[in-house]
Design a protein that fits this description.
Layout (H helix, E strand, L loop, with lengths): L1 E5 L12 E8 L2 E8 L10 E5 L11 E6 L4
Antiparallel strand pairs: 1-4, 2-3, 2-5
């Protein structure tokens, strides 16, 4: 189980080298992970990916994704 995607700017271009933060709770455990856009090229030039578990876990509204530029 994981989460992935791409980041695009207002012109529709992918944006590499942004910090993506995944936080929340999954199965009673805290989640606090970081990735860079462009780090998962299999998803595209602005791609990022988080691998969470090796099996599905039921969750509803417990994980948040935040995106930061180099200035935070």
């Amino acid at each position: 189980m994981g989460l992935g995607g791409q980041v695009f700017n207002f012109q529709g271009n992918t944006v590499p080298n942004l910090l993506v933060k995944l936080t929340g709770t999954l199965n009673g455990n805290a989640v606090d992970l970081l990735a860079l856009t462009g780090g998962a090229l299999n998803l595209g030039p602005g791609g990022y990916e988080f691998k969470l578990t090796d099996h599905p876990i039921a969750s509803t509204g417990t994980i948040w994704v935040s995106i930061f530029d180099k200035d935070g």
